[in-house]
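name: query_chain
kind: protein
chains: 1
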Amino acid sequence: MADIKWDSNIFSTRFKECISSLSRREVGLLTGLGYYTIDRLMKNKSQKPSLRTAALIAASCNVSLDWMFGLSDKKELR
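structure:
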């Protein structure tokens, strides 16, 4: 199995892309995440989200986890 390395820049960039038209409050309402968690993920590129957090973001944005983590270029879910 290949060793997958964490690339925080990809996640951070794609997270910001997903929520670019929303306020932090709106992101919180959409995902159920707290303001502090959202703020940390937006500002701190080294912040690793939990799988649950990443899954909530991906599902709310209708994108795949593979895309969020840079493992695929296929963005949208079917």
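note: Residues 8-18 form the longest helix (11 residues).
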